[in-house]
């Protein structure tokens, strides 16, 4: 019975020329760069959404505290919370103290730096800086 010799897949080079190999390497590098950029953008979007959720939770806690104070000072009568939340436009404005981390972003923005420059300088995600600037209280 004759033995069949298995062929070594690496015996013949998969690329017929060095130029083809370089082309494939360049394509792979471009793909890795694209994937890195996509991951960075997705992380920025997640950071932005997380920061926005934190801000909304903070605002909700402040409004709950305000409602608690109002119901406590109404001569003992109980105020029922509305079944549906009131639209944000009609909600009373609660002055919020400026977070020192936000103040740092605001001061750099006032000096003319854009969100990417501020993010790089403070070593924070650019999406977070963009959100902080977007939620900046108007004076």
Quick description:
The protein has helices spanning 18-72, 100-110, 115-122, 126-134.
Compile the SSE list and pairings.
Layout: H1 18-72, H2 100-110, H3 115-122, H4 126-134
Helix pairs in contact: 1-4, 3-4
Explain the overall architecture.
This protein is mainly alpha-helical. The chain contains 4 helices and no strands. The chain has helices at residues 18-72, 100-110, 115-122, 126-134. The longest helix is centred in the first third of the chain and has 55 residues, at 18-72. The mean pLDDT is 79.
Q: End-to-end distance, in Å?
A: 93 Å
- Discrete helix count: 4
| DSSP E strands, number | 0
Percentage beta strand: under 5%
Main pleated sheet = none
Mean pLDDT value = 79
Return the structural class. mainly alpha
What gyration radius follows from the Cα positions, in whole Å? 29 Å
Give the % helix. Answer: 55-70%
Order of helices and strands: HHHH
Q: Low-confidence parts, pLDDT < 50 over ≥5 residues?
A: none
The geometry reads as: elongated
Task: From the structure above, extract its key features.
mainly alpha
């Amino acid at each position: 019975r004759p033995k069949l010799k298995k062929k070594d897949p690496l015996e013949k080079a998969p690329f017929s020329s060095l130029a083809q190999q370089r082309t494939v390497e360049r394509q792979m590098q471009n793909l890795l760069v694209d994937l890195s950029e996509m991951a960075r953008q997705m992380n920025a979007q997640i950071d932005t959404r997380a920061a926005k959720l934190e801000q909304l939770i903070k605002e909700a806690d402040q409004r709950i505290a305000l409602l608690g104070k109002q119901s406590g000072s109404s001569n003992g009568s109980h105020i029922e919370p509305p079944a549906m939340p009131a639209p944000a436009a009609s909600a009373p404005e609660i002055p919020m103290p400026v977070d020192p981390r936000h103040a740092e972003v605001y001061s750099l923005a006032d000096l003319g730096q854009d969100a990417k420059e501020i993010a790089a300088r403070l070593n924070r995600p650019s999406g977070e800086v963009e959100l902080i600037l977007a939620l900046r209280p108007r004076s």
